[in-house]
Predict the 3D structure of the following.
Amino acid sequence: MSRVEAHSSQILQEMFEMNQRNRTNISKTSMFRLEKRAQSEGYFLSKRRRQTVLMLLAGMMSIGAASAQEHAIYAAKSSITVRVYKSGVFSAFGHNHEITAPIESGTVNTAAHRVELHIKANSLRVRDPEASEKDRGEIQKTMQSSDVLDIQRYPEISFRSTSADPAGTDSWRLRGNLTLHGQTHPVAVEVKKRGKHYAGSAQFNQTDFAIKPVKFAGGTVRVKDQVRIEFDIQLGG
């Protein structure tokens, strides 16, 4: 390697280290200063070498910008609510189900509108306000059993978005993959920004994820196949 190549490689290394220290401050100005220093010491970057450096610089800047826009969620203030509605001939004798859970972890990229969420299946809790404490306990047990979520075999529920389309002011329609009960299928999610919160909802059928809707009294009281998930996410930091 020639002395010029060695020195330009040193410049690249300095640029990389500068970028690592502060990703958002690297710019063409930094490049100009480094090049001027090289020239003052008797070295000159060739046109081709300079183009290569600028391409690397652009890559560093884009990576830095993307990193700056990615936020971990504030798990203590982020949650989901699952709503399962009654059906059947004697549905008047049953009640709708309300199930809540904290979001264990996740990230939101506010620039790319990309989301990833993780929920522990055993953290889901039946809140049915119309049910007695005894009934809530029985519903909780059924929900966690192998007949429904089978939380021993499938301990995590997750969602990863794959695309986002604008749907009005501070609103988006996300598409992504929901993993539930060992099955992964695409779902659409409506999202709206409210200050530091992102709220939204999605609907899907239980049977799409190999879950059979629960039935009681010989099927005269049962829950609908379609469920609705609502979420409220607050960003950390």
Observations:
- The chain has two domains: 3-68, 70-234.
- Residues 38 and 139 are 72 Å apart (CA to CA).
